[in-house]
Design goal:
This protein is an alpha/beta fold and about 230 residues long. The protein is built from 8 helices and 8 strands. The radius of gyration is 16 Å and the shape is globular. Bound molecules: D-xylitol-5-phosphate and zinc ion.
């Protein structure tokens, strides 16, 4: 619970023509994960990357691959991503009924990966409750999933605090990840509310110096997290 904040750069905002250089930059800057946004044109309007890229990435980097599935049929595709070398797989609560959500989390863990459940901005924390005690991470979306470069939805940090509270009540301690519009100004807000892992697309890869941008966001988030812990007397 008290580990330092980690940054998970989303390669959706990277330069696909020079992905190797972008991965090297975030490795060197101390990224915690590589965030891979998988979109199918059904669950979200956009269509992005999938299994073949995850396979190649797993050979190209030692950073853990954090695969965010924004797809309509996660149960079918989870085994493919496990085999491709994902380290952590996130499914959306909205894509699955409760029984299938439980099944998906079990399938991910049976494959030896860390499992996460994600909530869209309009989805209440209650939707994660059936798996809250079984997941390694909860992803709070701070934009509507589908596109990088969107503005952070004000107040999303309140949902981060709610997830932290619900987890505590259950005696669970999943990591809390936030995704969408996270940069120098918004990272401190979510980190103070209890976020452990911050996904950053444009704030890292659209910067002139991605490594420097990553380090400053991480430092700002960590300072805010420590200040909030001190204020709470922890
Ligand atoms: C949105 C994706 C995000 C996105 C983040 O659906 O899940 O990971 O790429 O990009 P930024 O940080 O630019 O909002
Ligand atoms: Zn994402």
């Amino acid at each position: 619970m008290f580990q330092p904040v980690k940054i998970a750069p989303s390669i959706l905002s990277a330069n696909f023509m020079d992905l190797k250089a972008d991965i090297a930059a975030i490795e060197e800057a101390g990224a915690g994960y590589v965030h891979v946004d998988v979109m199918d044109g059904h669950f979200v309007p956009n269509l992005t990357m999938g299994v073949p890229l995850v396979k190649q990435l797993s050979r190209a980097t030692d950073l853990p691959l954090d695969v965010h599935l924004m797809i309509a049929n996660p149960l079918e595709q989870i085994p493919w991503f496990v085999d491709a070398g994902a380290d952590s797989i996130t499914v959306h609560a909205e894509a699955l009924g409760v029984e299938d959500l439980v099944r998906a989390v079990a399938l991910i863990r049976q494959g030896g990966c860390r499992a996460a459940v994600s909530l869209k901005p309009g989805t209440p924390v209650e939707a994660a409750l059936p798996v809250l005690g079984d997941v390694d991470m909860v992803l709070v979306m701070s934009v509507e999933p589908g596109f990088s470069g969107q503005r952070y939805i004000q107040g999303s940090e309140r949902k981060v605090a709610q997830v932290a509270e619900a987890s505590r009540a259950l005696g669970a301690a999943p990591l809390i990840q936030v995704d969408g519009g996270i940069g120098l100004e918004t990272a401190p807000l979510v980190a103070a509310a209890g976020a452990d892992v911050l996904v950053c697309g444009n704030a890292v890869f659209a910067a002139d110096d991605p490594a420097a941008a990553l380090r400053s966001i991480e430092a700002a988030a960590e300072a805010a997290r420590l200040a909030a812990l001190a204020a709470a007397g922890e």
